[in-house]
Recover the amino acids of this structure.
DNA sequence: AACTTGATTCTCT
DNA sequence: GAGAATCAAGTTT
């Protein structure tokens, strides 16, 4: 009995050929659990990018889950489109989209098999490569370099050319595992307006970090039950 | 209208 | 100063 479990622990990639090798060091919960667990596991991990001869590193302090079974706030809600194609792709790949025609947002595809899903990285605490980030975000305080999904992409130089990349050292963009962060808080997601999912607690934040965006004082006033995540296929 | 940001203006502390 | 409100800035749906 223990041999099967040990084999699974030792060689997770054998049953997950699509999963980037750089993520194999993460605990099994990272890729065995629904998207909320993935979101939870990403907090405290590091977003790393090797680009233009420099390494950028940031500690993830804020992330949001999108997708799953029925999430009207997700790009995947109405099925696959050229834009959100990466949400339906293999887990551990990037999903980068343009927002408001101006900025970009970085996500990690993390849906269960046959389910679309992605985790939006909303803020990281700059750890390494501050000089390159300051160049891309000239005139900003260090606190503001990566506080917000659009700012994060600007500081990292992430754009549509980074969409669909496997997160790995080979691609130059990956997640470095970290011990489970304690004391995270779940809140409603930011910027959903009148969306019926506006009150779902799918935003995970390190409340002790100044590098996360502020949590709104007033939450959506019409709570609706979150749907149970299941492995049932979309549509 | 949209999973945002930056600048401005207002309020309150 | 901090925080809320308002507005405008491309592109895609």
């Amino acid at each position: 009995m223990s041999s099967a479990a040990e084999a699974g622990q030792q060689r997770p990639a054998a049953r997950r050929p699509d999963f980037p090798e750089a993520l194999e060091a993460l605990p099994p919960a990272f890729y065995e659990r629904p998207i909320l667990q993935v979101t939870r596991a990403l907090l405290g991990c590091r977003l790393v990018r090797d680009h233009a001869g420099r390494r950028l590193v940031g500690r993830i302090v804020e992330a949001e889950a999108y997708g799953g079974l029925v999430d009207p706030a997700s790009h995947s809600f109405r099925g696959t489109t050229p834009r959100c194609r990466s949400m339906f792709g293999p887990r551990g790949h990037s999903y980068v989209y343009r927002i408001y025609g101006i900025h970009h947002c970085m996500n990690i595809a993390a849906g269960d098999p046959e389910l679309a899903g992605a985790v939006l990285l909303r803020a990281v605490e700059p750890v390494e490569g501050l000089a390159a980030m300051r160049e891309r975000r000239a005139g900003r305080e260090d606190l503001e370099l990566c506080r917000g999904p659009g700012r994060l992409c600007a500081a990292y130089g992430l754009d549509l050319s980074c969409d669909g990349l496997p997160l790995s050292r080979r691609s130059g963009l990956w997640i470095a595992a970290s011990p489970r962060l304690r004391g995270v808080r779940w809140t409603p997601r930011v910027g959903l307006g009148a969306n019926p999912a506006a009150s779902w607690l799918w935003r995970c934040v390190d409340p002790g970090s100044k590098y996360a965006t502020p949590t709104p004082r007033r939450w959506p006033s019409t709570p609706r039950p979150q749907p149970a995540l299941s492995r049932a296929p979309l549509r």
Notes: The first helix of chain A runs from residue 2 to 10. Residues 1-33, 230-235 of chain A have pLDDT under 50 and may be disordered. Residues 64, 66, 73-75, 97, 99-103, 105, 107, 120, 122, 148-151, 154, 189-193, 195 of chain A lie near DNA strand B (CB under 10 Å from a C1').
